[in-house]
Amino acid sequence: LLNFIKKFKDKKNKKAAFIYGPTGVGKTSCVYVLAKKLDLEVLEINASDIRNKEQIQQRLGSSIKQQSLFSKGKIILVDEVDGLSGTKDRGGILTMAQLIDETYFPIIFTAANPWDTKLSTIRKKSEMIMFNPLTSNDVSIILKKICKKENMEYDEDTLKSLARRVGGDARAAINDLQMLTINNKKLDKES
User: Fold this and answer.
1) Do 121 and 114 form a contact (C-beta atoms < 8 A)?
2) In this structure, what are the phi and psi dihedrals at residue 42, rounded to the nearest 5 degrees?
3) How far is residue 98's CA from residue 49's CA, in Å, rounded to a whole number?
4) What's the pLDDT band for 34 if we cut at 50, 70, 90?
5) Could you tell me if 103 and 17 are in contact, meaning their C-beta atoms sit under 8 angstroms apart?
6) Dihedral (Cα; 53, 97, 88, 61), 10-degree rounding
7) Do residues 49 and 77 touch, judged by C-beta distance below 8 A?
8) Are 18 and 131 in contact (CB under 8 A)?
9) pTM > 0.90
10) Confidence (pLDDT) at 157
């Protein structure tokens, strides 16, 4: 994804990236981390909020060609594009595909399932980047880092159990950790 953003201006590269993978693996977070690292602004839209041709044109049409408010470069993030339906959202996918051809800035789509036939038009115009599912060990490592940075006490077995219960969804694990430790900053069997 970093290479895609850095090499965006190269004419032979695609103008959109399509990152996909299970819920809670960090697709959207990764875009924000890279934008911060590269000093870029993120214009995020959720595909479930803008659904048809008119709404997409209104929200994205001028944004794909105009410099940001602070004269920074930007990334156009279309989150959860697989949330568009084929019937209610008439023209939505086709309009997004046309915007890829016109954009001056990288467009990044996220989805859990990019292989739906309705997405084939934008999939063909995008660099496909897979985010692998997280293991319970991956989630456990993330939770440990958070506990250490937040100066939280934790029971190793309880933390590992929490990591196993979320099925690879780091976001769910972080939310659970927050709820369980909000009162006493301690994760133990009792909590």
Assistant:
1) no
2) -115, 125
3) 19
4) very high
5) no
6) -20
7) no
8) no
9) no
10) 95
